Amino acid sequence: MKLKMQKSEQLMNLSRSLMPGGVSSPVRSFQAVGGQAFVARQGKGPYLYDVDGNKFIDLVCSWGPLIHGHNHPRIVESIVDALKDGVSFGVTSEPEIKLCQRVIEMIPGLEMLRLVNSGTEACMSAIRLARAYTNRNLILKFEGNYHGHADSFLISAGSGLATLGVAGSAGISKDIVHSTLVSGFNDIESLEKLFSEHGERIAGVIVEPVAGNMGVVRPSMEFLSSLRNLTEKYEALLIFDEVMTGFRLSSSGAQGIYNIEPDLSCFGKVIGGGLPVGAYGGKTKLMSLVAPLGPMYQAGTLSGNPLAAAAGLASLELILDDKRNFYQLLDASGAHWKSYLEAHIKHKSYPVCVEQIGSMLTIFFCEKPPRNYDEAKVCNLDRFKSFFWALLERGVYYPPSQFESCFLSSAHTEEIMERVAEASVGALDAAFEVAK
Ligand code: KE4
Q: What's the topology of domain 73-320?
């Protein structure tokens, strides 16, 4: 059924005259899938409503933060309560202390944390700290990983850059490019080679412990343990970017699942409950270099904002209310959807595969689950585009990019997921029908 998009079209025309591409973040332009991006009006539980009255089951959930769905009453209440005391103080407030305390309690080995306003800020501060601590210059990242839009990261990055089909960004100075080494994700050989050539000059390695920004790509255990061993051997810092995976894959993120303790961790998304929060942290020995204690400067007008901290705290406390069951239900939703899809894909012999871990899932339009960015890039993007629109027309909003992950929430009940499963199988058939 063709979607009504008149109001979205009008608003996006106005928006395009005011903001680049009419968006505050590129992926929202739907540029990778063509067609008219919709304008959101309201979110409620698993649903997103647009300004034309269309109602979608939301599989994006604001790109990860909304692990309890839209407008969970407990999170709304925490924001309203905090609001009664004020929106911002510019001095420490109790909500930010409590949020830090909660995050530190939930991540084994974490001793100290600094709150910032985004995942980008968390990751850029973590690499600055690695350079400050080691007095070295080089940072090593992985193809297809995305750590936000700080200069050092916009080299062979995933997420929005992959979505737009660009490897890097204009405006990055040459010396920044030369200070960032890039290795293949899951490629131990290339990692060992880079360390043997540059090891003594590497300040830190930053990695998405489970990659979500080329679509979901699991690490091999050997890859993660090689990372830990090599960084220890060469005394470089290992930084886990858990902005996406933190508190999504388990109550202690991906590091809890793979049982590897990084030197620094970056968080975001879930710990803000939908409001702007990022954080980076590690042992006190490292964090004591951060101003005002030490020589590494980092600051932020609205860092630790009391409303955002209150929302993040409520988000974590909802998880802790029954964390075992919380993740079991989320994981089951993802697993059931995956097996339903795989049965249909097998039955129809579609060149499609599904990668899923917990409540993160990607449907790849290629034969086998990618193990790295090169393998993800061979996906059939035209087929993906037809699938995206066929699914949207069936009332399900899937991420508008092959190189992103779906995010499920506790609001995605069994009944909702049955509808998602039916619609996604129908959209696959439609996408392959079109191709005939
Ligand atoms: P932000 O600066 O967007 O809050 O976080 C950057 C970031 C850092 N690390 C990881 C692993 C991330 O996934 C992100 C941001 N994720 C993307 C979606 N894949 C945000 C969506 C967008 O850019 O609009």
A: Aspartate Aminotransferase; domain 2 (3.40.640)
